[in-house]
Write a structure and sequence with these properties.
The protein is elongated. It has seven helices and three strands. Strand 2 and strand 3 form a beta hairpin. The protein has a three-stranded antiparallel β-sheet with strand order 1-3-2. It is 47% helix and 19% strand. By secondary structure, it is an alpha+beta fold.
Length: 232
């Protein structure tokens, strides 16, 4: 079974072409790539056409390949393309030698380089720049210090523990509580009734002398009644 395809690294509005094993040093190739960076595709082609450097012809072929990829593979507008990137890198280096005096050899290096050209639609590039400017304009919230973050985490952990404890208490069967005894109500009504009723007149207490007189009278009466019976 074959390997799965790698995900596309570029955006939908970009296309690229890579030229490898170009017989020139990276330093010389970068001079040509610098002349087309940021230009429109049409202007870059005309610049490469009239550049006197030998390697400009190879760079022109790579740029044409990138434009064709954008048109055929990604359905981009050719008239709206610009050269957004032209990066240069090293490739292999062939090593040769030149015979010198007294049997010595002079070292000769033949460097190769590669170039990657990325073209992009101008409208999409401008839209992306506007989005980036808007994001940069928004104030970013200040980050909390690590000590504050730790305190916040500890507080949240304590709150979560309390919630779990409450849930556990709610789940446990609660014993039936005996009805609480009500406090005796104040007998305000009884007091009012007693206040409304007229106070009863108290009888004057009999003195001790009066009580003695009553007893003597009663005894005398009895005696008289006895004498009267004898007379009869």
């Amino acid at each position: 079974m074959g390997k799965s395809a790698l995900p596309r690294k570029l955006s939908e509005s970009q296309a690229r072409a890579v030229g490898r094993n170009i017989r020139v040093s990276p330093r010389k190739l970068n001079l040509v790539a610098q002349s087309i960076r940021g230009k429109s595709a049409e202007s870059a082609l005309s610049t490469l056409t009239f550049t006197p450097k030998r390697i400009a012809r190879d760079v022109k072929k790579i740029l044409q390949s990138a434009i064709a990829n954008a048109e055929n593979n990604h359905d981009l507008d050719v008239d709206d393309l610009i050269v957004s990137e032209a990066s240069v890198g090293k490739n292999l280096t062939m090593k040769r030698f030149q015979p010198r005096a007294r049997g010595r050899a002079g070292r000769i290096e033949k460097p190769f380089s590669q170039i990657t050209i990325i073209v992009e639609e101008k409208r999409m590039l401008e839209a992306a720049k506007k989005k980036a400017v808007k994001k940069a304009a928004k104030p970013t919230p200040a980050k909390a210090s690590p000590a504050k973050e730790d305190n916040a985490k500890a507080a949240s952990a304590a709150v979560s523990e309390k919630k779990t404890a409450k849930k556990a208490e709610d789940k446990q069967p609660t014993a039936k509580k005996s009805p609480a005894r009500k406090a005796p109500a104040k007998k305000a009504s009884a007091k009012k009734e007693t206040a409304e009723k007229p106070a009863a007149k108290k009888k004057p207490a009999k003195s001790a002398s009066a009580s003695k007189a009553i007893t003597t009278k009663s005894q005398g009466g009895t005696k008289k009644s006895g004498k009267a019976k004898e007379a009869e």
